[in-house]
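Intended use. Records like the one below are meant for learning the mapping from a protein sequence to its folded structure. Do not use them to infer anything beyond what is encoded.
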Amino acid sequence: MHRNVTRRVAKNAIYMFIATVISGICGMLFFALLARRFGPEKLGIFFFLFSLVSVFTVFASFGLNTLTMREVARDKRKAPLFFSNVLLLKVVLSLVSIVFVGLILCFLHYSNEVLKIGLLFSTIIIVNTIIALNDSLFKAFERFEYTAFLKIFYNVLVLFVGFFMLSKGCNLSAIILLMISAAAVSACLGMGILRKKFFRFKPDMNIDFWKSLLREGYPFVFATFTGILYARTDVFMLSKMSGDVAVGVYSAAYKIIGVYSTLPNIFIVSLFPILARKFENSKESLKDIANNAMRYLLLISFPILILSVANSKEIISLLYGSEFKASSIVFQILSIRGFTFFTNTLFGYLLFAANKQKIILKLRLITLTANIILNVLLIPKYSYIGASVATSISAMCFLGLCYLFVIKSVYKMNLIFLGIKPFVSGALMLLSLLFIKTGGGLIFDIPIAILVYFSSVIVFGGFNKSDLQMLKHIFVSAG
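Structure written out for the chain above:
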């Protein structure tokens, strides 16, 4: 990767790494506290409503986050225009989304308790869309430290206040109120930082600009909407076909996958403004940056996949206790979904950078359809295991389709060449996990397996001297 790109990405990647690790740990601990306090059934209700709200948060954003980040990254003078108009447009779309959440819960005949909690939870859509708008502008200005600070602030606040509330026996509605309040504070802080550090803004309602935003944004929103709907379809179908307990067992494993699936975003979101510019003026630089990014993503994702599959029982037991032991096999199967997220994230952003968002929409519609069909066939007989198989198979299909369109529409990436060394090193790592047992449990076996993996990567030339020099440069630049 070019030295000037490395310098610009360095601080952003490190800020996002720190934020993702801290937030991921806080989020995982908070979810584990919920699981131990409420059990599989109540956890299933929470995760179902969380998934439903997530889908409509995407609709309320209408693809405007990616569009704002791309356009402001290309021309910073557009920031006040985008912020003022997008903010008001998002509020309108959020209110529409809240109405739809209530209508869906009524139409599907959920209990009054679930309806009341769901309507309360849906109000977080408004503040979440504002937070996402703030983040898109911080990223467009390549000042990721503010995004990192606000992300850490929210998750730490929810964890510590949530721990206190759960220890006092608070119910699920009180926990949801906590999440909404913390998100509102984070949204206000973000708006204050934008106004003080970057640009001044005032309410603006340019209807012609709204129309252009909606025309430009609809491929983004439907691509993202179908993507998250695909990711949550299993939860919705499990809820109606197998019940809240099945959703609780499934969600315990899914949450872990969701935590480490945020890792590729650390790197790729930091690169996206640069990818968008390079596509416009330097295709060779784009190819060089993307190849290196994919190589690093594969180096990270293979050992995570292997460790997840080989140690699923121990990980689930450590986090949730014996009540969730059925989640271990779900975790093993969904690890395939987690692995594909690394490659699919880069493929998606490459297509967005190349203005091919309509292709992403088509591919996600195809995989969403496949996922629904597989869930219909598998859930009635295999419940949460069937849902995890359906999700992982459709994720692999999306990977293959994305790769075909990247090599057709952006450049000819050789994925097999980039992945062969991490794959062989991963196979040796798996053998070490199977045959080298220290008797000390995860705390000893995992570090040994990781050492075997990265030693093999270095021996096979998957991580060379130039990479070490680049890492040194990153930390010097960020220091």
